[in-house]
Specification:
Elements lengths: L6 H16 L16 H17 L18 H13 L8 H14 L2 H12 L5 E4 L15 E5 L2 E8 L10 E7 L10 E7 L5 E5 L10 E11 L3 E2 L5 H18 L8 H11 L5 H33 L8 H23 L15 H14 L4 H12 L21
Parallel strand pairs: 1-4
Antiparallel strand pairs: 2-3, 3-7, 4-5, 5-8, 6-7
Helix pairs in contact: 1-3, 4-5, 4-6, 6-9, 7-8, 7-9, 8-9, 9-10, 9-11
């Protein structure tokens, strides 16, 4: 892949920059209240930011026009991502909807569901979450226990999900349930769209190491979901979920995007902090920044190559797991180097020189991202089996009825 912009890409990039400059006053910036005291006000501002960007044609760039997008290329989407980062626009509030839920609704939803949900998702009129992991089935997703029982033309849902990103602000979610416990665990699943404000849905935020509450546990107590909100046929939930997971691994690092703070941010910090260190520590600091730079840029450019393959008609496949692995490893190196450059100032929530504590928060946030979209161990298994063709470990639980297995 040629990493330089073509003439068309350069013109597109210039147009994106012009649009961002035109709407600068309407956008939230990372350095203008990242840790707002009023969470509700912050949410409203982030929704408005995505709405402004959507109306400017900078959201859903590679989505088809039929589904509310711009029918652009993935290279154009990468350019938009780069320019948003350059302009210090934070991650879009509906990134779960854009990267995971939306593509799943596009692939498996009905025309009525497309019309009802997709345009509002792009504008962040509705924020979405992904309800997969459970207390007893995180890495082994197909072992989930949340049940959906058909009653007339509605399904009655009971169970619990956990580690659900954005559930506390979400309007809708995609929900994976067990609808037939007599079948093997992968075959008895069904996916639904669920209204997060429906009676019986309870969301409880979980406090994280960095002090924020991005993750949540969600409880379903006799929640009614119309059969018209089903994604795919009953029992096809695993196939539908694979669409979500493949897109998730591209969205979470598999596309070469920075997870957390960019290498350019680290370079700026290093320029200011390294000269203040004793000479012997300057050498070590430069080595740490160099290692992080190599890892981050290698992941970024490999992601661009993967985007190129997808833009030529391919689909996100298991090789995206390698990108997600590399992305989280690179992000950890960047965050660790940044915190080390802060030195003793890292113990404060806000350091000197207008530092806003972003490096400390980012380092504390990354362990959760290492789990999101599959733990490192699960991803290595996927790469071994589906990319390298290594034999899988023998597992009887894939063929036995789910209710016959041990679920202690």
């Amino acid at each position: 892949m040629d990493f330089d912009d073509t003439a068309d890409e350069a013109a597109y990039r210039a147009g994106v920059r012009e649009l961002l400059d035109q709407h600068a006053a309407e956008l939230v910036r990372l350095d203008s209240g990242e840790e707002a005291a009023d969470a509700a006000q912050q949410e409203r501002a982030l929704r408005q930011t995505q709405r402004v960007l959507a109306e400017a044609g900078l959201v859903g760039v590679s989505w088809s026009r039929e589904h509310g997008g711009q029918a652009g290329t993935l290279a154009q989407q990468a350019i938009v991502n780069q320019e948003l980062a350059r302009a210090r626009v934070p991650t879009l509030i509906n990134h779960i909807g854009l990267g995971m839920c939306g593509p799943t609704v596009v692939a498996h939803g009905t025309p009525a569901q497309h019309e009802k949900y997709l345009a509002r998702l792009l504008r962040a009129d509705d924020v979405w979450c992904q309800l997969f992991s459970e207390p007893a089935s995180g890495s082994d997703l197909a072992a989930l226990r949340t049940t959906a029982v058909l009653d007339g033309d509605e399904w009655v849902v009971n169970g619990q999900k956990v580690w659900t990103t954005l559930a506390h602000v979400a309007d809708y979610g995609i929900l994976l349930t067990r609808t037939d416990p007599d079948r093997p665990k992968h075959a008895g699943l069904t996916m639904f769209v669920v209204d997060m404000h429906a009676p019986g849905v309870t969301v409880r935020p979980l406090k994280q190491l960095g002090g924020q509450s991005d993750f949540n546990e969600v409880f379903f107590d006799d929640v009614l979901i119309a059969d018209s909100e089903r994604l795919g046929e009953p029992g096809e939930g695993w196939r539908v979920a694979l669409t979500t997971l493949l897109n998730e691994r591209v969205a979470v690092g598999g596309g070469g995007n920075d997870l957390g703070l960019s290498i350019e941010s680290l370079a700026t910090l290093a320029r200011d902090r390294v000269p203040q260190l004793p000479p012997d520590r300057q050498v070590l600091a430069r080595q740490a920044v160099g290692r992080a730079s190599v890892a981050a840029l290698a992941n970024r450019y490999t992601g661009y190559r993967r985007y190129t393959a997808i833009s030529r008609g391919g689909l996100p496949g298991p090789e995206a797991s390698a990108g997600k692995l590399a992305g989280t490893a690179a992000a950890k190196l960047v965050a660790d180097a940044g915190v080390r450059l802060l030195g003793d100032d890292a113990v404060y929530s806000r350091g000197p020189d207008s530092d806003d504590g972003r490096w400390q928060r980012n380092q504390a946030w990354l362990p959760g991202i290492a789990i999101a979209g599959g733990t490192d161990e699960v991803l290595r298994n996927i790469i071994g089996e589906r990319v390298l063709g290594l034999p899988p470990e023998p597992r009887e639980d894939k063929t036995a009825p789910f209710n016959a297995g041990s679920r202690s």
